[in-house]
């Protein structure tokens, strides 16, 4: 599509690891800042932000030019990398910042981020929230059809922050963030509160397929961040990475390492939580079939646990004899966790705080005992 250097690129590898195509992302005059990529049927879907007036969407796009700046953008690239199939912007006269993007079951493009545009395009079923009067940002959720020509749904969420979005098998979507939910949103659908004994507050909201109808909301009293996104398995359970506030029965370990947690499909229960000993906070988790979870991150640990017969059983030693000797260098790690045996009968231990004892949870959140 583009051979001259720009602010982004996309490379596709075939099944043997060879380059199928590699292209810069759009004309340099567009100034695209790509943040998320998804692939379906060989088509690459990208989303991010754009602020250049030279940006031009394809014919039939929902929004061909930048309304304010920066705005969201979404585009698709042909399977052979030869050019864009669709390019569109989305935004108002203020500023938008994309946090995450995914594709739902129907093929719609889900954009989650924040905005301060008073004239943000909304659909008729938008939740009854107003744009920020003080110019600060608020969370928004936008769905465009796969052709980028029609606004399926768009709404203010009512929170200050949104970090991640995931599609679930029933056609709905789940968003997650690290701010408090507004009380009126809590009252619109079943609400659950999971207290993990940490001072910060995170949230999940599930929306119905192709609409702004909330199906359930969950407040998580925890210091999660969702920077690496969230993911759903075939049952609709939600997985995320972070520094767990709890450890479940059978967990791999319980320390300050990064880890994996799992929320039930109805938002009511924490199903699993475990640290990954020696793995940094920057870890990603993607749900797979049959209770498998694929994880990747990095470690500086010399005792990181590995399974027999792996490609690299220990991390490479740090270089010696140079000024870099004191550096604690990291190696990448990748693994697969089998969580198929975990269910609502597991117990959870909440990390103790000063002056507090351990709190046990049997199956679902319950009063401390």
- Tell me what portion of residues adopts beta-strand conformation: 35-45%
Sequence stretches where pLDDT stays below 50 over 5 or more residues: 353-364
* SS summary, helix count: 1
Count of DSSP strands = 25
> What string gives the helices and strands in order?
EEEEEEEEEEEEHEEEEEEEEEEEEE
What value does the Rg take, in angstroms? Answer: 22 Å
Q: Calculate the mean pLDDT score and round it.
A: 86
Major sheet: arrangement of strands: 11-12-14-15-13
Search tags:
369 residues; mainly beta; 5-stranded mixed sheet; 25 strands
Walkthrough of the structure:
The protein is mainly beta and 369 residues long. The chain contains 1 helix and 25 strands. A 5-stranded mixed beta sheet has the order 11-12-14-15-13, with no helix packed on it. Strand 7 (96-103) and strand 8 (109-115) form a beta hairpin. It starts with 8 loop residues before the first strand and ends in a 7-residue tail after the last strand. Mean pLDDT is 86; it is low at 353-364.
């Amino acid at each position: 599509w583009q051979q001259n250097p720009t602010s982004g690129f996309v490379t596709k590898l075939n099944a043997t690891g060879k380059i199928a195509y590699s292209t810069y992302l759009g004309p340099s005059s567009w100034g695209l800042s790509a943040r998320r990529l998804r692939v379906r049927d060989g088509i690459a879907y990208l989303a991010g932000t754009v602020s250049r007036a030279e940006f031009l969407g394809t014919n039939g796009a929902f929004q061909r030019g930048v309304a304010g700046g920066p705005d969201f953008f979404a585009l698709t690239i042909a399977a052979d990398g030869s050019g864009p199939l669709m390019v569109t912007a989305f935004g108002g006269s203020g500023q938008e910042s994309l946090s995450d993007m995914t594709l739902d079951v129907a093929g719609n493009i889900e954009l989650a981020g924040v905005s301060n545009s008073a004239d943000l395009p909304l659909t008729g079923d938008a939740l009854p929230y107003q744009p920020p009067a003080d110019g600060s940002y608020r969370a928004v959720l936008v769905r465009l059809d796969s052709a980028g020509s029609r606004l399926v749904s768009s709404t203010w969420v009512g929170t200050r922050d949104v970090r991640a979005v995931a599609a679930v098998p029933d056609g709905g979507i789940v968003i997650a963030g690290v701010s408090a939910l507004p009380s009126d949103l809590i009252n619109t659908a079943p609400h659950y509160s999971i207290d993990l004994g940490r001072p910060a507050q995170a949230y999940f909201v599930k929306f119905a397929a192709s609409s702004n109808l909330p199906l359930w909301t969950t407040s998580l009293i925890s210091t999660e961040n969702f920077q690496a996104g969230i993911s759903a398995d075939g049952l609709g359970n939600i997985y995320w990475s972070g520094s767990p506030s709890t450890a479940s029965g059978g967990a791999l370990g319980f320390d300050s390492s990064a880890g994996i947690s799992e929320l039930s499909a109805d938002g009511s229960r924490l199903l699993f939580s475990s640290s990954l000993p020696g793995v940094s906070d920057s870890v990603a988790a993607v749900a797979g079939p049959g209770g498998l979870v694929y994880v990747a991150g990095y470690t500086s640990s010399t005792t990181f646990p590995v399974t027999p017969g792996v490609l690299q059983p220990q991390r490479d030693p740090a270089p010696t004899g140079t000024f870099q000797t004191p550096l604690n260098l990291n190696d990448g790690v990748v693994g697969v966790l089998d969580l198929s045996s975990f269910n609502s009968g597991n117990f959870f231990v909440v990390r103790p705080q000063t002056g507090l004892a351990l709190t046990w949870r049997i199956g679902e959140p319950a009063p401390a005992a």
